Amino acid sequence: MLIESTVTKLHEIRLGVMAQHFRQQLLNPAVNEMAFEERFGLLVDAEWSARKSNRLKRLIKNSSYAISSACVEDIAYHTGRKLDKALISRLASCSYIHENHNVIIMGATGVGKTYIACALGIAANRNFFAVKYVRLPDLFSDLAIARADGTYRRVLKHYTQAKLLILDEWLLFPLKETEARDLLEIIEARHNLGSTVFCSQFDVDEWHSKIGEPILADAVCDRIAHNSYTIVLSGESMRKRNGIAE
User: Fold this and answer.
1) Which of 5, 63, 128, 217 would be 211's cystine partner, CB 3.0–4.6 Å?
2) What CA–CA distance (Å, rounded) separates 222 from 229?
3) Where in the chain is the domain with CATH 3.40.50.300?
């Protein structure tokens, strides 16, 4: 009865994994030879590991990645890409996030910008940082809808508070003035408080004309360009090479 009561109480206080491993210990004669502290330590380790694993899964799911299976270990470094492995390793350590720095990933369509961005995002999740991935057109669509239904500030907060924000298809099309102002508000709110990954087909010098309004363009670009690591991808399309966006 005492055992069942203990198991029930563990479930009631949401220590289900500990309860499961407690039962397993009772069925393992070898465990009886262990000291109480060792047995208890094994139970705590099991619960801790399960909670960490579940937290990581939630972080990855909530990030809404375009490629949720991306990981830095699988990034291809063949010669044509001219990809700096040392830089990727440094970024995967998430030191840039601790420093509130940004990452700019540039290259033509299909060279793997999205894959690398998602891989860096999942590396951040592994360090238990909250990440949000979004295509820039979808972000503007979300804000336009929010502005119409009165939830603009709440939706804006969703994008400004993530420790790492990944903006894919960055400035693929020229912006409307409202979009440029929304963009400045997000970049300003995140400046020196969070990190952002920008995936772009265009060099930074070309961003001004895409943003449009010169003053807004200067404000946005100034807050990005001077504290960013830059990855420039080249070579043939990864989709053409092996049929996946890598």
Assistant:
1) 217
2) 14
3) 64-242
